[in-house]
Amino acid sequence: MAAPEPDPRPGPTSGPTSGPSSGPTSDSEPDTGPGTGPDTPPGTAPGPAPAARSGPGLGSGPGPRPGTDADSDTDADSDAPPGPEPLTVPSMSAGPDFGLRPWEMSDLPLVREAAQDPYIPLITTIPARYSDKAAEAFVRRQWDRAATGHGYPFAIVRSRDRRPVGAIGLWLRDLPQGRASIGYWMVASGRGQGVTRAALRTVTHWALHDLRVPRLQLFIEPWNTASAHIAEDVGYRREGLLRGWQQVGDERRDMAVYGLLNSDRPADGRAVAED
Predict the structure, then answer these.
(1) Fewer CB within 10 Å of terminal CB in the chain, N or C?
(2) Which residue has the higher pLDDT, 248 or 64?
(3) Could you report the per-residue pLDDT of 131-160, keeping only the tens digit for each?
(4) What per-residue string of b and e applies to 163-188 under the rule 16 or more CB within 10 Å gives b?
């Protein structure tokens, strides 16, 4: 699993990847990004928040930029740059067996299964104790992350039965500096089927070649060799160790950082994500 974005909720951070056997990798819920949607009673299941665009389009216009100071004078800030624009999360094929799509309120069974995992709630905002209300709030947070321009949260869905089995997110907090991060997690029923590799390859290719993000990065715990192998297969290169980088449960954990540049070419016989 790849470590997700910082927990948007007040209080201690919590944080995603392909499963306990693979560990966290980077920003994803891809549960990450600010913004918790308004609570509504179970059963209301509002649709995804409206969004205005499908990508930051680095080659065709400015990407999301930091918002202005909330305490500043309106007139004085009339020339200040706007905050991040809303994003539209697309649906994409991740090969013949899996697809990526926006989160839906019908994905509560996936949240329930993830909540039962011993690792996923430690690195994401998946509720450690499942309830319909907490699961609905989780789904709304994914909608809010797109609506507020902070990233693209995807549910990973198995094609044959349309069952969601995991999540992956592309997070744009550092896009003004020319970089974005990816995080992901997979429930037990989705592991061992090539889901994580297919999803990571798809989002990586889309970010580098369609959105033209200059640099992508993942953060993976050193023990998580399965997730590291997946990242390397897709073309990411280990660049170093960040000591005490992320809060995981009750302790600070080291994270290995993996990077992939838009300009990278295949290294050591491994394919950069172009296929």
Answers:
(1) C
(2) 248
(3) 999 999 999 999 999 999 999 999 999 988
(4) ebbbbbbbbbbebeeebbbbbbbbbe
The span from the CA of 151 to the CA of 153, in Å, is: 6
C-alpha to C-alpha distance for 41 and 133, rounded to whole angstroms: 7
Check: CB of residue 200 under 8 Å from CB of residue 208.
no
- Write down the mean pLDDT value for the chain: 76
Q: Please state whether beta strands 151-158 and 164-171 pair in parallel, antiparallel, or not at all (unpaired).
A: antiparallel
Q: Do 123 and 7 contact (CB within 8 A), yes or no?
A: no
Average pLDDT over residues 165-194: 93
Is pLDDT above 90 for 220?
yes
Residues of the chain with pLDDT > 70: what percent? Answer: 66
Neighbours of 50 (CB within 10 A): 10
User: 222-246: buried (b, 16+ CB within 10 Å) or exposed (e) per residue?
Assistant: eebebbbebbeebbbbeeeeeeebb
Cα 199 to Cα 40: distance, rounded to the nearest angstrom: 31
Please tell me whether residue 21 adopts helix, strand or coil conformation.
coil
Whole-number pLDDT of residue 250:
85
Tokens representing 146 are 């797109």
Query: The tokens 């744009």 sit on which residue?
Result: 172
Residue 47: Cβ-neighbour burial (10 angstroms; 0-12, 13-18, 19+): exposed
Instruction: Provide the pairing of β-strand 215-220 with 251-261.
Output: antiparallel
**pLDDT higher at 106 or 59:** 106
Structure tokens at 35: 């913004």
